[in-house]
From TrEMBL:
Pfam families: DUF488-N3i. One of its GO terms (molecular function) is methyltransferase activity. The keyword Transferase applies. Signal peptide: none annotated. GO terms for biological process: methylation. Keywords: Methyltransferase, Transferase. This is Uroporphyrin-III methyltransferase. InterPro entries: YeaO-like. It comes from Acetobacter oryzifermentans.
Amino acid sequence: MPHQPDICIRRIYEDAQPDDGARVLVDRLWPRGVSKERAHLTLWLKDIAPTTALREWFAHDPAKWEGFCQRYTAELNANPQAVQQLADLARKGRITLLFGARDEAHNEAVVLAAYMAAHLAHRA
């Protein structure tokens, strides 16, 4: 029976929780106003974040969400090293993907969590 990945998503501005597991920041830029101590990061995986060009194109515009999802998925497909690094962490237990965006429904962590769940289920 395949192992179901345990992937959570949380804004980095929320307090760390005891059940977060491995806390992974998936933004390319460090979030404003968050100290390294307060972040309680296991890993800052900048390489898995959307490229600067894609981030600037998207600009957190919900009207561009579908295009962002497609383009970011293509970037993830072309970035097997970073995906593998996150997959290795996810196989050890719960991971919490942290993001800085205000929009909790339209951000890279949402796309990445779905991508990783499918990636891990496919390779189980």
